[in-house]
UniProtKB/TrEMBL annotation:
The modification 4-aspartylphosphate is found at D58. Residues 9-123 form the Response regulatory domain. It comes from the Bacteria. One of its GO terms (biological process) is phosphorelay signal transduction system. Gene3D superfamilies: 3.40.50.2300. It comes from Bradyrhizobium valentinum. SMART domains: REC. This is Two-component system response regulator. Keywords: Phosphoprotein. Pfam families: Response_reg (PF00072).
Length: 131
């Protein structure tokens, strides 16, 4: 959880540049600091351990999927909250997400209605342990 004097930092990963821009705008408008990445690989290459307060990750991306990325983050002992977004509503996604350590799944195109509140909730209730 960020200190009260620091703006929460959210890492957003989505292969669609339009969606990435929209999510960035939405979160920045609601007071978050945002870094964006077009793939899981780009995030992993640029990430410093413990940098983000929350991850917002697209489910379906070329190469590494959002579930794969979340699983890899968890295997690296990164317990920062993750919100999975998907445009492919499938009843199996929440179960797959839970196995990967994801507690929040949002369905496009309705992400804009609740992303900021889910992000604040995730940051405030899922307190990562110190690594």
């Amino acid at each position: 959880m960020p200190s009260p004097n620091r703006t929460p930092l959210v890492y957003v990963v989505d292969d669609d540049t339009d969606v990435l821009g929209s999510l960035r705008f939405l979160l920045e408008t609601d007071g978050f600091c945002v870094r964006t990445f077009r793939s899981g690989e780009a995030l992993l290459n640029a990430m410093t351990m413990g940098g983000a307060d929350c991850f917002v990750i697209d489910y379906k991306m070329p190469g590494m999927s959002g579930i794969d990325l979340a699983s890899l983050l968890r295997r690296r002992d990164i317990d920062t909250p993750i919100i999975l977004i998907t445009g492919h509503p499938d009843s199996s996604i929440p179960a797959k997400a839970a196995v990967a350590g994801i507690r929040h799944v949002l369905v496009k195109p309705h992400v804009e209605d609740s992303l900021s509140s889910h992000t604040r909730d995730a940051i405030n209730t899922e307190q990562p342990s110190a690594s």
